[in-house]
Amino acid sequence: MEAILQIADQYGVYVIEDNAQSQGAVCHGRRTGSWGHVNATSFYPGKNIGALGDGGALTTNDANWANQARKWRNYGSSVKYYNEVKGYNSRLDELQAALLSVKLARLDNWNKERQRLAARYNDGLSSVADIQLIQVADHCSSVYHLYPIRTSRRDELQQALQKSGIGTLIHYPVPPHLQAAYNDFGWKSGQFPIAERHASTLLSLPLFPGLKDDEQDRIMETIQSFYK
Ligand SMILES: Cc1ncc(COP(=O)(O)O)c(C=O)c1O
Fold this sequence. Notes:
Blueprint: H1 2-11, E1 16-18, E2 26-27, E3 30-31, E4 38-42, E5 56-59, H2 63-72, H3 94-125, E6 147-150, H4 154-163, H5 193-201, E7 202-205, H6 213-227
Parallel strand pairs: 1-4
Antiparallel strand pairs: 2-3, 4-5, 6-7
The structure holds pyridoxal-5'-phosphate.
Residues 18, 20-21, 42, 44, 54, 56 line the site of pyridoxal-5'-phosphate.
């Protein structure tokens, strides 16, 4: 982010940080979601801090952007029935906000549990030659919204785990430049080889606060025996 912000500064452009998968993470002593000029996050139920339905928030230290966002979420209006700009109906309702306030107080503890489970996976899987583990940047923490591994035998491994009743997910199977929705950009397969390689080798293992150690041990044993 430091490098991105420097480039943005040089060219006079704004940075919008996406904090949807890193709620509570810290980088160089500073929380994620506070680096961009405007920062977006998601309270989709599966997120580290999830609502009981869809929701999201922006964070910013810039009073102008905060005022703009408040208007946009409320039909472009700051005075009832007077619409200054074209806006949306995108308010977070109070019931979701109340639930999220309670959950926010627990976020750091839940993240610690995710980090503990991730460390157990790291210990158990680091010796498997065909598995690459997440690398966390120096002076940064991960809150492991997901625990993706990379392996050349991804589809086979996923099937083997599924046979043992262990669900995994692929985040994400199609990189943005190859999505049908972006056809009009004319991107072709091969133009973003790293994203494409990740899309064909990533597999997210189960990780959530509440996953029991013996359940995680069984997942790791199943993976280890698959590679034997
Ligand atoms: C990194 C990231 N950004 C943005 C989003 C979009 O969030 P929402 O569906 O709440 O708009 C997601 C949701 O999965 C996400 O993981």
